[in-house]
Amino acid sequence: MKSLLTAERVHFIGIGGISMSAIAHIFIEKGIKVTGSDAKASPATLKLEEAGATIYIGHSSDNITDQDAVVYTGAISDDNPEFAKAQSLEIPTYRRTQAIDAIMESFEVSLAVTGTHGKTTITSMLAMILEETPQDASYLVGAKLPHTHKAYKLSPSTHIAVEACEYKASFLDLHPTTIIVNNIEEEHLDYYDDLDHIIRTYQEFATHLKPKNYLILNHDDFNTRRLIKDCNCNFVTYGINESSTFEARQITFDMHGYPSFEVFYEDEKLMELTLKVCGKFNVYNALGAISAAYVNGISIESIQSALSKFSNAERRFEILGTYKGATLISDYAHHPSEVKVTVQAAKNFDNKEICVVFQPHTYSRVKSLLLEMSSAFKDVNHLYITDIYAAREANTYNIHSQDLVDLIIEEGQNATYIKELKDVIPHLDTIAKDNMLIIMMGAGDIDQFARTIVD
Q1: Which of 1, 5, 260, 345 is most buried per CB count within 10 Å?
Q2: DSSP 8-state secondary structure symbol assigned to residue 6
Q3: Rounded Cα gap, residues 142 and 67, in angstroms
Q4: Phi/psi of residue 146, each to 5°?
Q5: How many angstroms separate the Cα of 414 from the Cα of each of 14, 127, 404?
Q6: How far apart are the two ends of the chain, measured CA to CA in Å?
């Protein structure tokens, strides 16, 4: 795979995505001539042009000429003309995750963070921890970090942290030295058959580790614990409720929902820590980052210094500002479990009513998790649900947001269907007040809309 990084010209199909654009920037920094295409122009494509890339808007076979290699996103269609042209010219093609693996190969320690939830936050935490070390940091994250406004960084370090996505089993292309698994639930059921299929895929990923490598698991998560049985490397656990290698004890929350806790390693106290991100789920995220950093030789001082000032990555309970006096938050939650913990975190805010504007993400997810989703919004005072964001799908599932709204109402909770995001404004104008949190929630374009309505 190292041959990919020795190429002179590389083309990226779907270059505008957060991960693809980050990889493209790394290739540019390595002196590789980058071309790329995407369906539409975006801030990401403009940044790439400023960095020296040649960007084509729209996919065309004409965009493939004399490149040495082509990297493509999993979101492209089977009949993509650029992919077909590359194959006809026998130009080597690489999946996005194969390009990440090529980058990882040059590092002595590679930390891959995976799981159904928390991947971006744990990887972001590790990135900040590595930046506190003398050797600096290298990382690839699925969101921009607030202090750099970038989703990547490449430095002459020995460690790299990467976010490892489980969709379509893409993480099987990666060969890290440490894997962190935060949790495992039913998700991406448009690809996976069922939960057992998902767990088997994680088990296969764990086999990529060598005997001296580390498998780091959230011991409080039942499905994650199932990976221990066949582990042929060093395994480390973290948790709150279960006896674990790393534990958080004496957890308290302040008026903003920020947790303070003590961290123990094999029953010996390592540190006291106060986070500037809210929610119990962020205690788990911090434990995952602490575990991975500590066993890979990062000092307690670097870990504590980084996490004490860590703030959320983009769209992870990100406070955007205010709307009519209410605190306006953008959050990426789109799975029922993510919705629940986000609402729980919001409840920890002092004397706040909670309003959620939720944009469901993909027809397959809503169809397969409809019952779970309908019960995920308990304790929300005002709930508005938009049309489903289709992303990569056509609606072959005979599902509609109104089905979700009807089920929520049937369970005794108020919910309102709104067709388009702009239609929520009259509703928000009626209810917005100083002691309210308005959470714009979802993995689609709701974040872009949220940023346009900040006071």
Answers
A1: 345
A2: G
A3: 27
A4: -65, -30
A5: 40, 41, 12
A6: 49
Pairwise CA distance, residues 154 & 443, whole Å: 27
Cβ–Cβ < 8 Å for 356, 378: no
Q: Do residues 211 and 169 share a domain?
A: yes
The Cα-based distances of 291 to 90, 126, 320, 321 in angstroms read: 44, 10, 31, 33
Same-domain check for residues 115 and 147: yes
119 by DSSP, 3-state: which? helix
Q: What is the mean pLDDT of each run of 10 residues along the chain (455 residues)?
A: 83 95 96 95 95 97 96 88 96 96 95 95 95 90 86 93 94 97 90 93 96 97 90 94 93 88 96 92 96 97 95 83 94 90 82 91 92 92 95 88 95 94 95 94 93 93
60 phi/psi in degrees, rounded to 5: -150, 145
CATH number for the domain spanning 73: value is 3.40.50.720
- DSSP symbol at 155: -
Tell me the whole-structure pTM to 2 decimals.
Answer: 0.84
Of 12, 177, 189, 209, the C-alpha closest to 94 is 12
The H or E element containing residue 252 is: strand 246-253
Q: State both tokens at 104.
A: 């990882």
Q: What is the CATH number of the domain that holds 344?
A: 3.90.190.20
Cα 161 to Cα 39: distance, rounded to the nearest angstrom: 29
Q: Are 434 and 349 in contact (CB under 8 A)?
A: no
